[in-house]
Amino acid sequence: MIRFDSGDELLLVLEALSNPHRLKIIAVLSEGRQYVSHLARELGISRPLLYLHLQKLEEANIVSSDMEILETGQAAKYYQLNDFQFELNEKNIHDLSSSLTMKKKK
User: Fold this and answer.
1) Least crowded by CB within 10 Å, which of 3, 21, 38, 106?
2) What is the pTM of this model?
């Protein structure tokens, strides 16, 4: 179970989960790790757009990645889903709200 140390950490996870593409990525990765090109084809989105969504998920520690060298000698980036679970209720939000820094988006 994920324990949040600050409101900003909670917000980071909630932002990462607030997009339908990212939820679909999580659904696909729940079946096992995937090579980026295969994942993009399965989801029907471009690799640059996929990388933007994966970056958000990685920042929230929902997914992780690693590079492998294929038999062809090419490097391939794979993503896998990290196990995650968290409880969200009014008490959690109340307790964490005082640590929100209200950072402005660039």
Assistant:
1) 106
2) 0.85
Q: Is 33 helix (H, G, I), strand (E, B) or coil?
A: coil
Within 13 A of 66's CA, how many CA atoms are on the CB side? 7
**Residue 34 CB-density burial (10 A; 0-12 exposed, 13-18 middle, 19+ buried):** buried
Q: Which residue, among 65, 71, 72, 58, has the nearest Cα to 22 in the 3D structure?
A: 58
Q: Which residue has the higher pLDDT, 6 or 27?
A: 27
DSSP character at residue 88: -
Question: pLDDT tens-digit profile of 60-81?
Answer: 999 999 999 988 998 889 999 9
Domain boundaries, the chain: 7-94
Give mean pLDDT, residues 25-41.
Answer: 95
Q: How far does Cα 96 stand from its chain's mean position?
A: 21
Distance CA 9, CA 47 (A): 27
Instruction: Read off the DSSP letter of residue 71.
Output: T
